[in-house]
Design goal:
single chain, alpha/beta, Rossmann fold, 3 domains, six-stranded parallel beta sheet, four-stranded parallel beta sheet
Length: 426
């Protein structure tokens, strides 16, 4: 048996650079097609979501903000009465809504607005036509992907109790095309009872019970996983479905739990693996040997680092993540190269100093750091794009590699254009 590799973990607590959990609404409102997300927050909250979503003026989105104004903050208005009025207007206008989330924000938490009681009150009024739930999207103590975790955790108590035969539950919001591909592979392997959380329709919320086995599709779902385990479901330890190795390992965990023969697994994944490797080969020459530095942002950093190191031969300078959930990431950590430095948490000034000293070829970071680092001559990648883009599964492996290749292509084009301009001027 091989000895475990030496992985240094540096734990930092200081100033952080992250988005708030409201950002998760951008992909969740597209996933649950008859749900509506009503943020109880400020105009800043509204501007953030609109900017992140890029919503056109003609669109009819499934999210909005109930604005907390100066009268609410001063206690001159009854915030609960105002909220009830907004919800009444919303549901009258949008009779297609079947699930309404009241989403807390920093302002609503500052004025101690109890959205859980509001959800109970409104739920009693509108059931069975509309189910009303609440969760916190505040960015005071969390990173932005935890908005999805809080949302899915709020759904778990609503799931019926299952006493049926074993079923597999995929946990985590995936693009529909990715979900269809992964469910198709699992079905082809012979696992027929497959459900997804979140569902595409509120009425399709799956049941859960002691015969449920679940696979996390995202590494930031700690609260959701705990809630499922409290309902009797059991997690399947697995890597995350990024790249060839991660996706095959993820499927292999399901195969082992449901007694799928290794030969059948190999037969099912042979063709998609071949396509994925061919797609990766197109980008590897540009990325091989490049040094990459991850700032903590999305909690996807460790699986992404594993993918870059093992499948594209990039060198890991530092891998930062907001929270290190060892139970969910153990296999990913074991697959990292020996000696890589992991950082849990953040002290942004210290990490910036290490990044500047290392001068990596690529920095993966949040929007707030990208422009300043670009101004210093570094090549950067917005980490939030890796959450908004379908990257899981075999068929998306090439797209995932391309996301990391684009910054180098962009910089080469900019440098080439600069050289041409200087030549013309001369």
């Amino acid at each position: 048996m091989n000895a475990p590799i030496a992985i240094e973990v540096l734990r930092e607590r200081g100033q952080r650079e992250v988005f708030c959990g409201l950002t998760g609404i951008i992909w969740l409102h597209r996933k649950i097609q008859d749900a509506f997300f009503l943020v109880v927050g400020s105009r800043t909250c509204a501007h953030l979501i609109q900017s992140a979503a890029g919503v056109m003026i003609f669109a009819e989105p499934r999210f909005a903000t109930a604005i907390i104004d100066d009268r609410d903050l001063a206690g001159l208005a009854d915030a609960n009465e105002e909220l009830d009025r907004v919800v009444d207007q919303l549901l009258a206008r949008r009779p297609d809504i079947r699930l309404l989330f009241l989403v807390g924000s920093c302002p609503s938490e500052v004025i101690k607005l109890d959205l859980s009681r509001a959800a109970e009150r409104l739920g009693a009024r509108y059931l069975p036509q509309v189910r009303v739930l609440n969760y916190s999207g505040s960015g005071i103590e969390t990173t932005f992907t935890q908005g999805e975790d809080a949302c899915l955790a709020s759904l778990v108590p609503q799931m019926a109790q299952s006493h049926e035969a074993a079923q597999l539950l995929i946990v985590g919001s995936l693009a529909d095309v990715v979900e269809d591909q992964l469910v198709g592979l699992l079905t082809e392997m012979g696992i027929e009872q497959v459900a997804c959380l979140p569902p595409r329709r509120a009425g399709d919320l799956p049941a859960v019970g002691p015969h449920t086995r679940f696979l996390l599709a995202q590494p930031f779902l700690a609260d959701t996983a705990r809630a499922l385990e409290a309902r009797g479901a059991r997690p399947l330890p697995a890597p995350f479905p990024l790249g060839v190795e991660g996706t095959r390992g993820w499927l292999a965990a399901a195969a082992a739990a449901f007694d799928v023969a290794p030969e059948r697994l190999d037969a099912v994944v042979e063709a998609p693996i071949a396509r994925a490797r061919a797609a990766l080969a197109r980008h590897k020459p540009l990325l091989e040997g490049k040094r990459v530095f991850f700032f903590p942002d999305s909690q996807l950093e460790i699986p992404l680092a594993r993918f870059l190191a093992r499948e594209l031969s990039m060198q890991l300078v530092e891998v930062g993540t907001p929270y290190l959930h060892r139970a969910h990431l153990q296999q990913e950590i074991e697959w990292l190269p020996e000696g890589v430095r992991l950082v849990e948490g953040q002290d942004v000034d210290l990490q910036l100093a290490r990044c500047r000293e290392a001068r990596p070829d690529l920095v993966v970071c949040g929007l707030g750091l990208a422009n300043p680092l670009e101004a210093e001559g570094m090549t950067t990648k917005w980490s939030i794009e890796l959450v908004f883009t379908p990257i899981q599964g075999f068929e998306q492996a090439g797209d995932l590699a391309e996301l990391f290749a684009r910054p180098f292509v962009r910089r080469a084009l900019i440098s080439g254009a600069g050289s041409t301009t200087r030549g013309a001027a001369a």
